[in-house]
Design goal:
The chain has helices spanning 4-8, 11-39, 44-54, 56-59, 62-68, 74-95, 101-130, 133-138, 140-169, 173-198, 211-225, 231-240, 243-257, 269-298, 300-312, 316-326, 333-362, 368-381, 383-397, 399-409, 411-419, 449-483, 492-523, 532-560; strands at residues 431-433, 437-439. The chain is built from 24 helices and two strands. The longest helix is centred in the last third of the chain and has 35 residues, at 449-483. α2 packs antiparallel against α10 (173-198), α9 runs antiparallel to α10 (173-198) and α16 (316-326) runs antiparallel to α17. The protein has 561 residues and is mainly α.
Length: 561
């Protein structure tokens, strides 16, 4: 007979609840909030700019992940973040009657995003360190299903059920949304209490000894991330593959919810939630399963460009919907749900190519898990500017023109999939040592002395170029977001931030070109060096960034003065 304590600590009692509790806050912040703000009269521009910034938090996870194990257990942080999320959701609900509720809500959601990202880090850590690899594999489907159920609840059932209750009890829109957030808070509080008794601790055997050691290990793994051959070709794929999706991610739902008079489809918040969270989730899951089977049958290299087409071509459904909206033609709910589901199916089918490419081509090496985390963080980081700009762009162009722009923005995505490099296609690449360390052709043990020198110098040039890109994506995007809607006087603070950013980018550009030149000189002693292309890629990326810098400066001067 199995002891009761051991029985209730079976993974099936905590894996589904853990990932359900991880899926709810992520989707509440990135889905429920935008639907609420739309219902309460916040413009699409304000909506996407404010919430697009918050996506940053999940992209920056690697910068504090290693520090968490220094102090307490993974279980402690998961429980703490679940409780913090519940309290913050109550705070959002209580702030809605305030005159400045939008600013208060955004501030609370920033903190909630940090809590959610931290919960993700430690929740994944418990899963990986408490279960054997066979057990992890057998529960992967349960894990994914539970997370997606979190989306169904957070962005679907909670909203639609409260909308139905509001009709029965004649609640105001504000009261209805307060109850949505109270419900989310109650669910997170329940998981906090439940996990006190059920959740395992997770491994603490690799507890870092000091902050200095954590920083040193982080810098080493970050440096080797830039030592991969064809680095900039792979980065171009990661950055471009989801460009069209980034534009449609938030604005697609806001378009469905916009009034017919403004060119939208006039759906209620509950109807949009039902389409996105239920039909859309099912369609994307089915698409993901079929995409995985297709990829497994054809192979990544042959199928990637097809997956890219499948990810982007279905955006045309929104072109059709927006044309109907432009003519103020009403569409029945079933037609809208069907067309949106087709787009979500294409997303699920094509997105699998992105993840597998990063797993098989970008991540392998001595720091596979960390490099995969870096790659996924960069992938998500690109969604920040595209999500932020989608609202202002849709308001400026109108929905019917905006979704045509989305289709054109999808062209680079397909091109990136067609041209994506495959540096690890040799049979001996990715051979494992003891099942942990992956030895690739970029490993120092497989390079000549001349190759090592060029690899290191080109890596430094790439680091400077990447810092230039990150400055644009993080600092410049934030400053331009602050200027959105500015109407009185001069926006001195954002302009000063952009000025400091420009000075930093000049420094980074100078050092990129300097180290790229050094790499070219060093490669003279090692003809055919595979890493010289990385130095050239760093230069090209910097020239593109400089052109973007000039454009952003012109936009900033127009917005801020």
């Amino acid at each position: 007979m199995i002891p009761a304590r051991k029985f209730f600590h079976h993974p099936l009692f905590w894996v589904p609840s853990l990932y359900l509790a991880m899926g709810i806050p992520f989707n509440v912040i990135n889905g429920t909030a935008s639907t609420m703000f739309k219902s309460l009269g916040i413009s699409d521009a304000q909506n996407t700019v404010a919430l697009g910034n918050i996506i940053l938090m999940w992209s920056l996870k690697p910068f504090w992940a290693a520090f968490l194990d220094m102090y307490r257990t993974k279980r402690f942080f998961v429980l703490s973040m679940e409780l913090v999320s519940a309290l913050l959701f109550v705070g959002v609900a209580m702030s809605l009657p305030l005159d400045n509720y939008f600013k208060v809500c955004i501030s609370l959601l920033w903190v909630a995003s940090f809590a959610s990202a931290t919960q993700d880090i430690c929740g994944d850590g418990i899963y990986l360190t408490s279960l054997s690899k066979p057990k992890q594999a057998s529960l992967a489907g349960v894990q994914g299903m539970a997370w997606n159920l979190g989306k169904v609840l957070a962005t679907g059932l909670f909203i639609s059920s409260m909308e139905d209750l509001s009709k029965v009890y004649n609640w105001s829109v504000q009261t209805m949304w307060m109850n949505v957030w109270f419900t989310c808070a109650g669910v997170m509080a329940f998981f906090f209490i439940y996990h006190i008794f059920i959740l395992p601790t997770g491994s603490t055997s690799d507890r870092p000894e000091s902050t200095k050691k954590v920083v040193a290990e982080f810098l080493l793994t970050a440096e080797t991330f830039f030592h991969k051959r064809a680095f900039w070709g792979m980065i171009a794929f990661v950055f471009l593959y989801r460009m069209g999706e980034g534009l449609i991610l938030s604005e697609g739902k806001l378009f469905l919810q916009s009034s017919i008079e403004s060119g939208g489809l006039g759906l209620s918040a509950g109807q949009v939630a039902h389409i996105d969270a239920v039909f859309g989730t099912v369609a994307s899951i089915v698409g993901g399963i079929l995409g995985g089977l297709f990829l497994g049958k054809l192979g990544l290299k042959k199928s990637l460009w097809i997956l890219g087409l499948c990810l982007n071509v279905p955006h045309f459904t929104f072109v059709y919907l927006s044309q109907q909206g432009a003519w103020h033609h009403g569409l029945d709910f079933a037609t809208i749900a069907t067309l949106v589901s087709i787009e979500k199916f294409g997303y699920g089918f094509g997105f699998i190519g992105n993840m597998v490419y990063m797993m098989q081509q970008f991540a392998p090496g001595r720091f596979t898990m960390t490099h995969y985390a870096f790659a996924t963080s960069l992938m998500n980081l690109v969604l920040v500017p595209t999500t932020m700009i989608s609202g202002p762009l849709a308001e400026w162009l109108g929905f019917s023109t905006f979704f045509f722009v989305v289709m054109f923005a999808s062209v680079p995505s397909v091109w990136a999939a067609w041209k994506a490099p495959f540096p690890l296609e040799e049979k001996d690449d990715g051979a494992a040592d003891d099942g942990h360390i992956v030895i690739t052709p970029d490993d120092p043990t497989r390079l000549s002395d001349g190759e090592k020198v060029v690899q290191k110098i080109a890596g430094v040039a790439s680091i400077y170029a990447m810092l230039h890109i990150l400055t644009i994506l993080i600092v410049d995007a934030w400053a331009l977001g602050r200027m959105q809607g500015h109407s009185e006087g001069v926006a001195w603070f954002p302009l000063m931030v952009l000025g400091a950013s420009a000075a930093l980018k000049l420094f980074l550009s100078f050092n990129t070109f300097r180290h790229a030149t050094r790499a070219a000189l060093a490669s003279a002693a090692a003809p055919g060096n595979a890493y010289l292309a990385n130095a050239g890629g760093a230069k090209k990326a910097t020239w593109i960034c400089i052109a973007i810098d000039v454009l952003l400066l012109a936009v900033a001067l127009k917005l801020g003065t």
